[in-house]
Design brief:
five-stranded parallel beta sheet, 30% helix
Length: 272
């Protein structure tokens, strides 16, 4: 069996699931999800229940029973040590217990079709979300994600992005005819007062933490994407099915050069 421990927000949960599901397919084992961390983790909720995924919930066994079972079948406990892609993950045998973030498409690109199918939404969308998606299809829509919230007091993630957004907007305006910008943020009121573009702009202000999967769907239906250093908007861009999409991502993902972030951004995205 493959067991993955989920933690973090929706974007992190999608990465963790995608890596584990791909490993389960490759090793022909059953996938189990460990959601026990959300019993005490208060920053985010478990959110994969909105998607087209099938799995079993892993329940921690009595440690003595677990030890006895380990004599009969090998257990591998893999804890990610950095953000770099580890190709050796697929060489693990027996029961595999995964803990980490696995923020690279290299873990699941081989099974892209299956992952995209799993990440189709089952939960019905609000009418305003459906109407906005229909509008996206008729125009050159561009999503812009501005992450604030818990990043503001986090010295690792609160990177300076003012110049990044200026350059990204200019690049889109040079490459896309009549773009319409759709702004997403976990602090949309602040963004309305402090962020503007030279083109038509729509602020997506009708979702919250309980319906952020609808924001993700909206991002993915935009024709192009400007993402933050956030796994949430990363997935909004990755799930975008437009074959001609332009995705712009910040080159500076962390405020720490010692962290290996080389494998986070796909090679066909633009880093600035």
């Amino acid at each position: 069996m493959i067991v993955v421990q989920l933690i973090g927000g929706l974007g992190n949960q999608l990465f963790q699931y995608a890596a584990a599901k791909s490993l389960a397919i490759q090793t022909k084992q059953q996938l189990f999800i460990d959601v026990s961390q959300f019993e005490t983790y208060k920053l985010h909720n478990y959110a994969l229940n909105h998607f087209n995924i099938v799995f079993k919930v892993y329940k921690q066994e009595n440690r003595y029973l677990r030890k006895i079972k380990s004599f009969y079948k090998k257990n591998n406990f893999y804890k990610e040590v950095d953000f770099g892609y580890n190709p050796n993950l697929t060489s693990l045998k027996g029961n595999i217990f995964l803990e980490g973030y696995f923020q690279s498409e290299k873990y699941f690109l081989k099974y892209e079709e299956e992952i995209r199918n799993d990440f189709e939404l089952l939960t019905p969308l609000k009418k305003i979300t459906q109407d906005t998606i229909e509008k996206n299809d008729l125009i050159n829509s561009v999503s812009i994600h501005i992450r604030r919230g818990d990043y503001l007091n986090n010295p690792l993630h609160n990177t300076s992005k003012e110049e990044y957004y200026k350059k990204a907007l200019k690049m889109i305006e040079d490459k896309v005819q009549d773009p319409v910008f759709f702004i997403f943020s976990d602090d949309i009121d602040w963004v309305k007062l402090n962020f503007s573009t030279n083109k038509e702009t729509v602020f997506i202000d009708f979702n919250d933490t309980l319906t952020n999967f609808e924001d993700l769907k909206l991002m993915s239906t935009c024709k192009h994407n400007i993402i933050a250093n956030s796994s949430f908007s990363w997935w909004g861009a990755w799930l975008n099915k437009n074959p001609d999409k332009i995705v712009i991502a910040p080159k500076l993902w962390f405020n720490d050069d010692s962290i290996n972030a080389d494998d986070i951004i796909p090679t066909n995205w633009i880093k600035i």
